[in-house]
Amino acid sequence: MWWLMLAVLAAGAAIWWAVKGLLPVNGLTFVNPEELRGSEQGGHELQMLDVRDSVDYMKHHVPGSINISMGRLPYVHKSQLASEEPVLILAENFRQTKRAARMLKRYGFIRIYALQNGKASPGCGVCCQ
């Protein structure tokens, strides 16, 4: 009987994890790369945070972006990023983007942006053209 309760609890946790990844993040704004080119985001410098692992970052990174993988983000965000400046998240997919945005919100970041396609791609147009 206890194994049945454990299985139900595990299934509930898996469902919660899946649903949480689909929920919108309050304060995360999705933008087109064309909107970012030439805009100054209210007179503040845009910080580009690439949360992919270092191998993917080295292969295809946007010049000027800061690479902090998801595992390191809780430990080095204070030394690498300014919470009062806007942040553009470059990630592998929407789930990773939302996870990074939730972390940044928890650490006091207010203006958080992500690309509409949800992923950082080579030549994405943010600053490369």
TrEMBL record:
Signal peptide: none annotated. Residues 42-118 form the Rhodanese domain. PROSITE patterns: RHODANESE_3. SUPFAM superfamilies: Rhodanese/Cell cycle control phosphatase. Gene3D superfamilies: Rhodanese-like domain. It holds the Pfam family Rhodanese. It comes from the Bacteria. Coiled coil: none annotated. This is Rhodanese-like domain-containing protein. It comes from Paenibacillus mangrovi.
